[in-house]
Amino acid sequence: MNQETLRFAQSNEAKFIENLKNLVKIPSVSFPGFDPQFVVNSAEAVAGLLRSSGLQNVEILRIKDAHPYVYGEWMNAPGKPTLLLYAHHDVQPAGRESLWNSPPFEAIERDGRLYGRGTADDKCGAVIHASAIWSCLKTEGKLPLNVKMIVEGEEEIGSPHLEEFLKAYHQKMQADAMILTDTGNYDTGIPSITTSLRGIASVDVLVRASDHPLHSGMWGGPVVDPVQALSKMIASLTDKDGKMTIPGIYSKVRALSKAEAQSLKSLKYSEKDFRKQAQILPKTKIIGGKDLLNSLWNEPSLSVNAIQASSKKDCANIINEAAWCHIGIRLVPHMDPKQTLESLKKALLKAAPWGVTVEFSNGHASPAWLAEAEGTAFQAASRALEKGFGRKTVFIGCGGSIPFVGPFSKVLGGVPAILIGAEDPYTNPHSENESLHLGDFFKSIQSAIHLYEEMSNISARVKSAEGRFSRVLSKV
Ligand code: BES
Ligand code: MN
What is the pLDDT of residue 330? Predict the structure, then answer.
């Protein structure tokens, strides 16, 4: 490995932080109702960063009605493997601005962390590779292998145009392995490769009882309260221990292999670790079984992400005319996403009391993903992380979802998909005060430099040799 490149990257860490800050400044929220022009501006800024890092043929890829993707490549290593590097530049909404300790779209350093929406999820994913590529090209004038980089603009809304994107660009995306830099580490400073993701089935539910709000004194009693109706419907989905009651919902949960069980055990994760990382209030119970990591990574879970009827500001003595919620189930491998969505809707309808009307909209269903993390590509990536972090790499699961992974690696002929990233358990993604641990950011850049070198030595035919190691285990 070229020590000069590693040192050069180290001496430019301040510049890499600046590059990340410049991306965070752009509020590229992909959610409906937010100005999509910011996502376009963000794509242009990412394209600028890729260009100035030395990537070639940088362009913004557009699919009708989709937020823009950014593409760049460096394909001047004939005979060497090609890596497809993935990140996303869209972000979640900021949430309640009053709860941020510093402005969400102005990245600010505090105690070794960089605070701001998208610092970790996932603008750092693009900056990590841009920084590593720039460092290699500046010091050596070349990369040890070929790279293609794709930075998506609609990941946080479930990649709704993925199919069209793949239809249009699958040829352009061909590669021997994928590196997705959008997951995290088991703990701060512990390099990790994620080998499973949960999928998700989610939907908006609207319960209606009357035409308009009614005075709760004048009408209260005989009039159906849609908030109570929705509450009963939601409550019917779980038992007293928090386990879901939807028929068949756990039928596809697989028993872990001996090796998997052993690997989980060796991580020695305790309830104390869990409480500290998630900052659960001391008296609040932990539900859903004793084995926390297994529950997070390998079992389905239910959450109500938002609920609404009137508001704190407009709260008055009324019976609301309607109540709304967004509800979702995280899926594990072998669960059918569409079927799970149907089962969820059916269970809600079955529990709907008093003749209320129930409308569903914005349904989303994407599958879980599982890799058999064996073979030379995973070994090379594991060595690279070990060198960059100075610690042994661990293999972990992830309770989150990235809809892009399964369909993409399939279109690429089942090439290995290696999931890494700089998020740690204190990152707070999707919440207020999201942050990136800067030490892990720099180590991730060093690891990426090692990764290009390590992966350049694996056979360019890794694709056919290891095709079976990356697959989606359920159909959409
Ligand atoms: N980066 C996350 C996935 C993730 C979550 C990685 C937790 C590591 C730990 C990703 O950007 C994300 O949040 N995805 C969405 C996908 C959904 C919109 C289909 C998710 O999991 O909610
Ligand atoms: Mn992400």
Answer: 98
Angle between helices 124-140 and 37-52 (to 10 degrees): 20
Ligand with minimal distance to 192 CA: 1
* 383-441 tens-digit pLDDT: 999 999 999 999 999 999 999 898 888 889 989 999 999 999 999 999 999 999 999 99
* DSSP H or E run through 406: helix 405-411
Output the pLDDT for position 475: 33
For residue 459, the model assigns a pLDDT of 67
Question: In the chain, which residues have pLDDT < 70?
Answer: 1, 459-476
Interatomic CA distance for residues 225 and 221, integer angstroms: 9
Q: What is the pLDDT of residue 390?
A: 98
Residue nearest to ligand 1 atom 8, measured at CA: 183
Nearest CA to 417 out of 375, 446, 459 is that of 375
Q: Which residues contact 463 (CB under 8 A, 6 or more apart)?
A: 176, 177, 412, 413, 414, 415
CB 336 near ligand 1, within 6 Å: no
- Assess whether the C-beta atom of 184 lies below 6 angstroms from ligand 1: yes
Ligand lying closest to the C-alpha of residue 201: 1
- State which of 320, 343, 365 marks the end of a domain: 365
> Residue 218's domain is classified under what CATH number?
3.30.70.360
Q: How many CA atoms lie within 13 A of 441 on its CB side?
A: 31
For atom 1 of ligand 1, which residue has the closest CA?
182
State the number of CA atoms in the 13 A half-sphere of 432 facing the CB. Answer: 9
**CA of 379 relative to ligand 2 center, distance in Å:** 24
Q: In angstroms, what is the span from residue 199 Cα to ligand 1's centroid?
A: 10
Q: Using the atom order of ligand 1, give the atom closest to the CA of residue 200.
A: 19
Q: How many domains does the chain have?
A: 2
How many angstroms separate the alpha carbon of residue 419 from the centre of ligand 1?
A: 12
Per the domain annotation, does 380 fall within a domain?
Answer: yes
Residue 281 counted as domain residue: no
Angstrom CA distances, 238 to 61, 173, 219, 269, 271, stand at 43, 43, 32, 26, 22
Predicted pLDDT at 1:
61
Comparing CA positions, the residue from 435, 388, 424 lying closest to residue 107 is 435
Atom of ligand 1 nearest to the CA of 182: 1
Name the burial class of residue 428, with classes exposed (0-12), middle (13-18) and buried (19+) by CB atoms within 10 angstroms of its CB.
middle
Q: Is the CB of 340 under 6 A from ligand 1?
A: no
Q: How far apart are the first and last CA of the chain?
A: 42
- Name the closest ligand to CA 423: 1
Final residue before a domain boundary, out of 332, 365, 398: 365
